[in-house]
Each structure stands twice: as C-alpha cells, then as structure tokens.
Write a structure and sequence with these properties.
With 462 residues, this protein is mostly helical. The chain contains 20 helices and four strands. The radius of gyration is 30 Å and the shape is elongated.
C-alpha cells in the first residue's frame, strides 16, 4: 500500500521501519470510530461548501459501505498499512478515486487519531460502567440475603469485632460505586472534540467544529489546537480509575482466597469457577481470584506506561503518543474481563454461615462491648478498657470465654457488672445493636441497601 506522505521521499521505506512504525495491529479496533468520525467531517465539509455536496454525500455513502463490509468480514484489514486511518482512506480512494482524496481536507492524522481514541474510549467506558453496575447489584443482592449472617470483622488480619457478611459485602458495593463515579467523571472531561485542531495550528478553511462535535455527541470542542492534538490526560485518568477498580477487585479476591481455604472455610466456590491440581486430587483452587490479583499489577503497569510516555514530550504531537493505545486498551480489556467473570463467581459461591458464626464466637471479639457495658454504667472508657483487657487475659489463662465466665468472677473486677451483662455481650446482640449510620446492625444495613438501590436506579436509567 502506497504511503499517503510518499511525495516528500525519494526512497522506499524499509520494511523493518514500516513494521516498527505500524500501529494497525492494535488500532484496527477503532475502525468504526474512525469511519463515524470521517462521516461527520465529510458532512461538515459539504455543508460549508469546502467540498461539493455531491462529493460529501458520496464519501459518506462509501464510508458506510466500508463499515458494513468490515463488520460482515467482506473487507479484511491490510496489516501492511501504517494505521487504521490510512487503511480506511486508502480503501475509500480505491473505490471512488479522486473524490476520496478530498476527505482529508482541513484535517490531520493528529486530530483524527485524537478524535478516534476519544470516541472509542467513550464507548468502552459505557461498557465498563454497565459491568460495574452489574457487579454492584450482585454484591447488594448477596448482602440482602445475609443481613443476619454473623462473621468476625478483622483489623491487622486479627479478629476484631463481630459484623455481618452483609456489611462486609456492602463495603465493596460502595467501592465499586466510587469506581463508577470516577470513570463517569473521566468520560465527561474527555467528551470534547479535538477535530479541527489539524496538525497543531488549526486551519485556514472556514470549518464548523461545533457542527462536528454535535454530530458526534460531544459536549463541546477542545478550545486550544495544540492541546487538542497533544492531550492524552484522559487516557491517564481512565487508566487511573481502572487501576483503582482493579485494586478493589484484587482486595476482594484476596479475601475470597483466604475464605475458601481450609483454615477459614467461610465460603466454597462453585466447581465451574474453580480449578484443580495436576498432582493433588483433593485441591480446589481459587485461580480466578489469583488471576485477578495478578492482573491488577498488569493494569498498574499500563498506567505507569502512560504517565512515563507523556512526561517528557514537548508540544504538540510526537510519535511516542502512539504508545497510548496498547496500554489503555489493555487496561480496559483486563478490567472488563475481570468484571465479567467475577459476577457469576460471586453469584454461585456457597456461604458457610455456621463456620462464620463459629469463628466470630472465638477470639473475644465482644471485648469492646464488655468495655461499653461498663461505660454505659458510669465508668470512664479508658478504665473500662483496662478492666476488659484484664478479663480477657484471665479468660485466656483459664481457657474460657467472656460468655462463659461466671458473674462472681466479673464482680472481682467491678461491682458494675450485673446479670444483664450476658445479654449485652451476646454475639447477636453485639452485632445487631450497632445501628449507627454505616454500621453492621439491621437498620443500618437496610439504609445502605436503600442507598445503593437509589444509586442503581438513577444510573441504570442513564
């Protein structure tokens, strides 16, 4: 395929240089965006009489046919082409001759690729947003089934206080809610058209940038032509939001890995979402979670690639910026794949309520409630804290629990202890009475679920 810029050169480009320079192997996925962007550009050129209406209409019609042929597999990409933009323009020119060559009037590949990647990422963000919403629904629905499932809450990976599985799951629903909002915000900041910036300095043609922006559902245009072709902030911002989302999925995956171990046995993954061992027949491995955990590092690498690629390049466009696509495409693909497989894995896993309850009964995780009992009967918290710690130490030495310790022993530490103490430190009582906003109690969990449902209803309709 002849190079569009061949007129300046006296020698053929080296094949190695062509291969090194080419991006069609990865930017071909933007074919639809490139064609739709070109259609809008051609329409504007015709409306402004920069090219004839007849030529504009023929270009738009032929671009539509090219799009249909690609999607019907009747037109294959030529991987000898430098990029998807050159490939489509070459096919257009082959089909309608000189008229096809008019399409690139008042446009550069610099603003063309800046347009294409914004259009492509906008579509992909919508896919991710819907997947995130689906996962939020999954966490919320499972939480709704486990409002009374008691488990130990942890700090420093040590049993700390009793909580409900519902509250634990809703923590991840809220993390994903923030991930949704970050991606949505990034999409809003990106949704401005760079087309018309041309190579870097704009154009002498009387173009209508706002017409093209409206045609492509942008909120406006990038107001500075240099910024229009050199900005890739949006790829960094999207990769950053994706990295945070992957971090949340990785944290949850780590917990699932622990929870399905024999040491915890809080949950059991469905056979369809587990793997076995080639040598140990008893094994049921949480490979999905381990891969999500591993792929999180890969996405972090994509973010660092983008930041490093951009940090040293002067205005305006530089070829370094071709490296933005593989990194941001990989980040998007990886998150999408992880969200897609995480949802059914959560939906099909079995929760072992009894094991969670037994774990919560151990470890003196009602010790804070013991201290609170004394506080509510008039003792200063620090004094109550010290007495409770001493009682825990006594229980450890005598191989007993707070629930089993006789009242006469309690009274050796304080006369404030009464018979109602045992109800106060009962595990269910400790858990369900916590109804401060955001806590594990039933009233609080119901408010959280209501809040998540409100968010889902608002955004499912968008």
């Amino acid at each position: 395929m002849a190079k569009m810029w061949a007129g300046r050169f006296q020698k053929e480009e080296s094949k190695d240089v062509n291969d090194f320079n080419s991006s069609i192997s990865f930017d071909s996925r933007m074919y639809r965006n490139d064609i739709i962007g070109s259609m809008a550009h051609a329409k504007m050129l015709g409306n402004k009489n920069i090219i004839s209406k007849e030529d504009s209409e023929l270009i738009i019609k032929t671009l539509g046919e090219i799009l249909e042929d690609i999607e019907n597999n009747e037109l294959q990409f030529d991987y000898e082409a430098e990029d998807i933009h050159m490939f489509i323009e070459s096919v257009l020119t082959e089909r309608i001759g000189e008229v096809g060559k008019r399409l690139h009037t008042s446009r550069s590949r610099n603003d063309q690729v800046a347009l294409d990647i914004r259009l492509y990422l906008r579509d992909q963000i919508d896919v991710l947003l819907n997947q995130i919403l689906d996962c939020i629904v999954t966490f919320k629905d499972l939480a709704s089934k486990h409002k009374k499932t008691i488990m130990p809450g942890y700090t420093h990976l040590q049993r700390a206080q009793p909580i409900t599985l519902a509250n634990h799951l809703l923590a991840y629903a809220y993390m994903l809610k923030r991930d949704y909002e970050r991606l949505n915000d990034a999409k809003k900041r990106m949704n401005y058209s760079p087309l018309g910036s041309c190579a870097l300095a704009g154009t002498t043609y009387d173009i209508d940038r706002m017409m093209v922006a409206n045609e492509l559902n942008f909120d406006g245009v990038v107001m500075n032509s240099l910024d229009g072709v050199s900005d890739r902030d949006f790829t960094v911002e999207i990769a950053s939001a994706i990295s945070l989302c992957m971090m949340h999925l990785s944290r949850f995956s780590e917990e699932i890995i622990m929870w399905c171990s024999w040491e915890f046995k809080f949950i059991e993954l469905d056979d369809a979402y587990s793997t076995g061992s080639s040598i140990m027949p008893q094994k049921k491995n949480p490979d999905i979670c381990e891969l999500i955990r591993g792929k999180t590092g890969r996405v972090y690498g994509d973010l660092i690639t983008l930041l490093t690629m951009l940090k040293g390049i002067p205005l305006a466009y530089n070829k370094d910026m071709q490296e933005d696509k593989e990194a941001i495409f990989d980040a998007i693909d990886t998150l999408s794949m992880c969200l897609k497989i995480l949802k059914p894995m959560i939906e099909t896993m079995k929760v072992n309520k009894d094991n969670m309850r037994k774990a919560a009964a151990k470890g003196f995780i009602n010790a804070t409630d013991l201290a609170d009992y004394l506080v509510k009967n008039g003792m200063a918290f620090r004094s109550a804290y010290k007495i409770s710690g001493s009682i825990v130490a006594y229980c450890i030495d005598h191989n007993t629990t707070l629930e089993e310790l006789p009242l006469d022993v309690y009274k050796k530490y304080s006369d404030l202890f009464k018979e109602d103490l045992y109800k106060y430190i009962n595990l269910e009582e400790c858990t369900f009475k916590r109804n401060s906003l955001g806590a594990s109690g039933l009233l609080s969990v119901n408010l959280q679920i209501k809040d998540i449902n409100k968010f889902l209803k608002k955004n499912k309709n968008n």
